């Protein structure tokens, strides 16, 4: 997701699933990474109420925890080549093993070869035995091997006032080829506008209390 102001509709299908006689509880596992640094920020678990996925519409809102809060780690799982992490939206402390690169499985005991580009992240293996790749801003594709032409644009001519230039994937359906992450105090599609602010000053002889209520 590149723009938090846009709602995304994604169709999910089971890639491989046996026809089970007994009902099984399925869930959707969601990982969040920072786009620039590729730093891991947390995971969410969204349960499915029906085994037949196409009839289940899922509307969920992900609240990304503040970076200073850190990750909620746990000790209830023996993760051989990884670490135990608690889901960010779990009220009962449900956890999972987050595996190191090159390892997969419930307890990170299954090795696999990473064929993603060298500047990307491998975070697991899909059902088709291909690695799941997290691409840097200038790459896209299933293995992050495709270059983004929008990244070659002069960033100073697109994002103003020190805004961070983020190219969008080459296969996205949006007309915009990039977005700008603005510095504090600036706004607009290209950070071209100064954000609204109110400066309040008091006479030096006025004794200010510890707190006050200001109404506009």
TrEMBL record:
<feature type="disulfide bond">
    <location>
        <begin position="99"/>
        <end position="108"/>
    </location>
</feature>
<feature type="domain" description="EGF-like">
    <location>
        <begin position="150"/>
        <end position="192"/>
    </location>
</feature>
<dbReference type="InterPro" id="IPR051830">
    <property type="entry name" value="NOTCH_homolog"/>
</dbReference>
<dbReference type="InterPro" id="IPR000742">
    <property type="entry name" value="EGF"/>
</dbReference>
<keyword id="KW-1015">Disulfide bond</keyword>
<feature type="disulfide bond">
    <location>
        <begin position="74"/>
        <end position="84"/>
    </location>
</feature>
<keyword id="KW-0245">EGF-like domain</keyword>
<protein>
    <recommendedName>
        <fullName>EGF-like domain-containing protein</fullName>
    </recommendedName>
</protein>
<feature type="disulfide bond">
    <location>
        <begin position="182"/>
        <end position="191"/>
    </location>
</feature>
<feature type="domain" description="EGF-like">
    <location>
        <begin position="70"/>
        <end position="109"/>
    </location>
</feature>
